[in-house]
Specification:
This protein is mostly helical and 637 residues long. It contains 20 helices and four strands.
Length: 637
């Protein structure tokens, strides 16, 4: 392998002809381009974010005053269930996967993901699962058993309608998307890095997505099994969760929380990866403690699977068992604290530039600090027994799941949208959005701690006057409106940017990683010639960036511009990412969509108990899968 400062001249038309999708709607439904799929993930996830936010505002309108009648008890339960379900299953995880889809191949110097068609399939499953869940509103039977769907209240005896079937089948449905996407991230990271990109040179965001993916592989099957067994009980009369027939209601909680608490860190880990990238760029120095942060991320991935029972401290488990989980719940704060101090050290030794992305990163630090402190508090058994099922817990998990995840995601929007769209966002509107969100968030969720201490239980749709909750609930509801207004300002900013934003250069932030080495937006092939990496900060340390040339053997065939013309990307192996082969990117196809549609029809058949509909969906899905896997001389991925 040799390196060149300038790739040999090749017609741009040749490269574009190899990579461009079909125009119009055919290209929309058949694309396998990781960038288009990543953008769709982000846009779709934000649609669910704002829809879930509107539902939350309706709930807060109901709770703003005592004995209010904005929502009935039944409607409140439906809104409460769909708010939590959409935020967890349809926004937080998919939007992080969307950023990973778009950025990971660019950051490791690849032209696409390892399995482009599987990538398209994961998006279509996610979209159809969201449509499936929200269609419950159209037929008038939205899920109403809480986003956790605890048994036995969600059994057929106590919830006889199809409301909970929408939830159970929908969770299994969306779990397919998350799992296959995780496999794709893992293989891409290990097999498609640019030459010289050793594991200790990976961007922290790539490390975070790798840990995220391994956690998904081990955690999501648990909630899939929980929802699947619940549906077997509901649809076919099995008794997995019925103690009268040898089942166990606590079994459901164990399965659910074995996913549910790692899920907190599944969301948190990529968010911290985003923060690390932003802090590095706007502190103008290398990230302090790179190896410590990587170790912390991997440690979180392991330790997070030993804390799930702290959600079940009030279920009457043996004290010895609970003490173990309490200790592990305290232990997991150590790797999180390592990252926190590394970010502070990076800013302390750097020259901080307070751009909008940096403000969101700093806001995350403050919110995460409080969420982490209350997390330690609820890990202590006696305290947890006092605040279990109170609004203190609602405050805690919103500080962790909303503040410590949503703020980095908004920071990532302001940081990477110029790369995605080619246009800068307004700094004035961005800073206004941050301060409105930051003030509104703390106004909405900090008083909930006080409500919890005053005895307000969670999951109630109304309350009597004179309990000391009236004024605080009004403040919480007003804060929710302010927070929603702040998120709306970012929407306006994005709209303004697409029409009037300043044109972004390839690297408008003077950042250090490979995605900034391409144009904004990136070309279809990402890199005409694959870059050669010699440090953790290639754009700071390697000017101009060296690139590889194609060789005569299969290992180096795709490295240079010839690989771009051939619609191929390089495969690398080992810790040192040595050239090991070439991978021909499959052409666009509608097969992933047809397979997803077949699965969707199968789930509809299960929902309405119509065997014919289910069989039709099964036939369509199997036919699409067989055609996809049929070897025709092209790689079936």
């Amino acid at each position: 392998m040799t390196t060149l400062r300038t790739p040999p001249p090749v017609s741009e038309e040749e490269i574009e002809a190899s990579w461009e999708d079909a125009p119009g709607m055919p290209g929309f439904f058949t694309t396998v381009d990781h960038k288009r799929i990543g953008v769709r993930y982000i846009v779709t996830a934000f649609f669910f974010f704002f829809s879930a936010g509107l539902v939350a505002l309706a709930m807060r309108a109901q709770l703003a005053q005592p004995d209010a009648h904005v929502l009935s008890a039944e409607r409140y339960n439906e809104f409460f269930t769909m708010h939590g379900t959409a935020m967890i299953f349809l926004f937080n995880t998919p939007v992080l996967a969307g950023f990973g889809n778009y950025l990971l191949p660019l950051q490791i110097g690849s032209r696409d993901m390892a399995f482009p068609r599987l990538n398209a399939f994961s998006y279509w499953i996610f979209l159809l699962a969201g449509v499936f869940l929200y269609s419950s509103f159209i037929v008038g039977h939205p899920p109403d058993g809480g986003w956790f769907a605890y048994t036995p209240l969600t059994s057929k005896t106590f919830s006889p309608g199809v409301n909970l079937d929408f939830w159970g089948l929908g969770v299994v449905f969306v779990g397919i998307s998350t799992t296959v996407g995780a496999v794709n991230f893992i293989v891409t990271t290990f097999k498609m890095r640019a030459p010289g990109m050793t594991l200790n040179r990976l961007p922290i965001f790539v490390w975070s997505m790798l840990v995220f993916s391994f956690m998904v592989i081990f955690a999501v099957p648990a909630v899939t099994v929980a929802a699947g067994l619940l549906e077997l009980d509901r649809l076919f009369g099995t008794q997995f969760f019925n103690p009268a027939h040898g089942g166990s209601t606590l079994l459901y909680q164990h399965l659910f929380w074995f996913w549910g608490h790692p899920e907190v860190y599944i969301l948190f880990v990529p968010a911290t990866g985003m923060v690390s990238m932003i802090v590095t760029t706007f502190s103008r120095r290398a990230l302090a403690g790179y190896l410590w942060i990587v170790t912390a991320l991997v440690s979180i991935g392991f330790i997070s699977f030993g804390v799930w029972v702290h959600h079940m401290f009030a279920t009457g488990m043996p004290p010895i068992a609970m003490s173990f989980f309490s200790a592990v719940s305290l232990l997991i704060t150590i790797p999180s604290g390592i990252q926190f101090f590394a970010w502070i050290a990076t800013m302390w030794r750097g020259t901080v530039k307070l751009t909008t992305p940096m403000l969101f990163a700093i806001g995350f630090l403050l919110i995460f600090l409080l969420g982490g402190i209350t997390g330690v508090m609820v890990a202590v058994l006696p305290f947890d027994w006092q605040v279990t099922d109170s609004y203190f817990v609602v405050a805690h998990f919103h500080y962790v799941l909303n503040g410590a995840v949503v703020f980095p995601i908004f920071g990532a929007l302001y940081f990477w949208l110029p790369k995605i769209t080619g246009r800068m966002l307004s700094e004035r509107l961005g800073k206004l959005s941050f301060w409105t969100m930051f003030i509104g968030f703390n106004l909405a969720f900090f008083p909930m701690h006080i409500l919890g201490f005053l005895g307000m239980p969670r999951r109630v749709y109304t309350y009597r006057s004179g309990l000391g909750w009236d004024t605080i609930n009004l403040i919480v509801s007003l804060g929710s409106v302010v927070f929603a207004l702040g998120t709306g300002i970012t929407l306006v900013n994005i709209w303004w940017s697409r029409r009037h934003g300043e044109v972004a250069g390839a690297d408008p932030w003077d950042s250090d990683t490979l995605e900034w080495a391409t144009t904004s937006p990136p070309p279809d092939d990402n890199f005409d010639a694959i870059p050669v990496v010699e440090s953790r900060h290639p754009l700071w340390d390697q000017r101009p960036l060296p690139v590889a040339a194609s060789g005569a053997d299969e290992a180096t065939r795709a490295l240079g511009v010839e690989g771009a013309v051939d619609r191929a990307t390089a495969l690398t192996a080992g810790l040192g990412a040595e050239p090991a082969g070439s991978f021909d990117i499959p052409e666009e196809t509608a097969l992933p969509l047809w397979l997803a549609l077949g699965i969707a029809v199968l789930f509809v058949g299960l929902l309405v108990k119509a065997a014919l509909i289910g069989v039709i969906g099964l036939i369509v899905g199997v036919a699409a899968l067989m055609r996809w896997a049929w070897h025709t001389g092209e790689d079936p991925a």
